[in-house]
Protein: Linear amide C-N hydrolase
Amino acid sequence: MCTGLQINYPGGSVLGRTMDIEMSLDYQLNYIPRNYQFAKDLFNQPLVSRYRMMGLGFNDYIPLKDGINEHGLVGITNEFPEFNLYDKTVDPTFDNNEVTYLRSLDLLNYLLGMCRDVSEVIEQIATIRIAQTDAKGQSVISPPFHYMFTDPSGRNIVLEPKNGQFEVKENPYQVMTNSPKLERQYHRLERYMDPEKPEEANAVKGLPGGYDPVSRFVRAYYFSQLSLKPTNQSEACASLYRILNVLSLPVGFLKNRQREDYTATLYISGYDPNTKELFVQDYQNPKVYRVSFEDIVDLDIYQTIPIPQNFKTDLLIH
Structure:
């Protein structure tokens, strides 16, 4: 599942997401320094970061689910269960110096580690292919993902995979959920409102109330457009977290009977491309924590940092 949303404020923006997944997973903040080998490509060649990056990942593994680099490029991954997304196998006729074959799990790290901004993402993605096996024919884990990116300019794009390559789509609505494709999301949004005049929609009766991707897309866009326009970063973050909390899944709402587990919103993260800050809120802890690159003690080593996950309150009167 998962919902991504960008909120603009004068001179900047914040991009955030709900992480909706099985609750048995642990997660943490990962910091990846420059010149760090974060993975290998499908020809077993090392992938080394050009830029510092940090974000959130699972079970002490390096692949980020969402993150930001030292230049303010921000990206998130969401599930995208469509057909014919990736190559079945690596094509040995491709020149490895011109085309980079990756797992989908490593694409976000690769782009954050190699690109300064959205324009460079667009240039770089033309040289990348995703496959389900490596050059030796061994199966690799390449889940169905699509990706949303922004940078300090506020430009928002979505990368959608198709036949191993990616389509770059400008995203003026600044929302991403899951399937269907972005154009179909826009078309279904228009069933509920005129996107140019969302204030004319009947919010009491007309909005979809489900948690399917289309319903979340419609509500996220509507809430973002009808909320009071933020005048600074603080107000933008408050608006982002209010909206994403409305779209989050409580524990127990969706049960995975095969795994005896629940799908729920594990965390809500946010990123400011201009200040290069990360914000995160755990599902059990309503407090929002903030991290910047300046807070990292040693910028030259890979680090994992736990997120406080117990419910906390602060005294009102000391």
Notes: Residues 4-305 form a domain with the Penicillin V Acylase; Chain A fold (CATH 3.60.60.10). The first helix runs from residue 107 to 114. The chain has one domain: 4-305. Helices lie at 107-114, 118-125, 182-192, 213-226, 233-246.
